[in-house]
Amino acid sequence: MTEAALIRKVDHLYTFFVQWSPEIYYNKHDNEKNVITVDTVTHVSVIDTLLINPASKPWQIVTVTQQKSRLRSVCSSLDSLDSQDLLPVLLDLSQVLKEHHLDKLFAHMPVRTQEYHWKLMYSTAEHGTSLKTLYRNMTDVDRPVLLVVKDMDNQVFGAFSSDPFKVSTCCYGTGETFLYSFSPDFQVFRWSGKNSYFIRGFFDSLQMGAGGGHFGLWLDADLHRGSSYSCNTFCNRPLSIHQDFIIQDVEVWTFI
């Protein structure tokens, strides 16, 4: 197995443990939220802690009802924190994102990104409408990215990508990748597990999610037209009110 393939498998396993063992990443002390950030390189050590040292986490079988009750308890504790403290710090001005967008998105971002500031790597307002320029601006990025799209109907939607966007000969990304939409209400569409067609980059298009004959999100080379249909990767609904839409703004953010 190649190193890249091993990293992908570790990332998938890491995503599973983040979802089912959040207490590893959230420690309560003096009523403050203390987040331990974990990057891709340290995923193996986290998983080793869980699997090789079982004393660190006694495993037990619980019912779905019990698990939902625990998650509601965690959410209630987080809701008691000052919402302003949970908003990310943007190092650049956004033409699209408002406070209510940031509030919703931040709550659903992977924990390992939540202590970082947001850096704007590409914007149609600043860099022009070119997918090639978007790829070029991602060349030195080695962190996850957030894609934000605003269409001519003023609908805001996009995707969190575990990997920076690039031209590729095959699909890439991990199960951390998800689609989201604020049209009409905020909703996140996470990996369904049905396939691993997370991201595919061409010079003439960017594709996210596939299966069932459609892409979850597709953007053209000029970042002028796009489309969003239900796909097997995320089992999403169309992200915009129109399945085929005209783009008004595109932004790509990373975390530093």
From TrEMBL:
| Domain TLDc intervals | 95-256
Would the keyword Transferase be found if you checked this record's keyword annotation? no
* PROSITE patterns named among the record's database cross-references: TLDC
**PANTHER family xrefs:** NUCLEAR RECEPTOR COACTIVATOR 7, NUCLEOLAR PROTEIN 7/ESTROGEN RECEPTOR COACTIVATOR-RELATED
**Domain of life of the source:** Eukaryota
Keyword field? Receptor
* Coiled-coil annotated spans: none
Please give the biological process terms from Gene Ontology that the record holds: regulation of transcription by RNA polymerase II; response to oxidative stress
Give the matching InterPro entries.
TLDc_dom
- Might you report a single GO cellular component term? nucleus
Which Pfam families does the UniProt record give? TLD
Q: Which organism is it from?
A: Triplophysa tibetana
Q: What is this protein called?
A: Nuclear receptor coactivator 7 140 kDa estrogen receptor-associated protein
